[in-house]
Putative pentatricopeptide
Amino acid sequence: MFCKMGELGLVANQFTYTVLIDGLFKKGRNKEGFELYEKMKIKGVVPNMRTYTCLISGCCNDGKMNSAFNLFDEMSERGMACNVVTYNILIGGLCREMRVWEAEKFVNEMKRDGISPSVVTFNTLIDGFCGLGKLDKALSLFDQLKSSG
């Protein structure tokens, strides 16, 4: 389909690339998703927040947290504000790697950036601390969640 667009003289924009990248990641074709991202950059198409979120999610799902944070930094360097979804994906990736204390620090960074943690944020951390056997910490976070409304 992407090649067909070129044959018809249609130029892909950031939305077209993002939809295709997202589709590739959803089908587990992460390598192709990253290759398409590289082509996107070569063509001079600037990724948007959704593009970065798809890429970051792909890295987290592959256990490539350094790459995920590099993309997060690249996003910030481009002046793009992250949203709670992007933060939650990174927090989830850290928790899956049992880096829960790091994830908690990242939540504090998120708050400093003016983004309020969501129920998903709390649930991810609570699950992470339960996985470490830190039930007191998990209960403390649950109390914070209840008090935050």
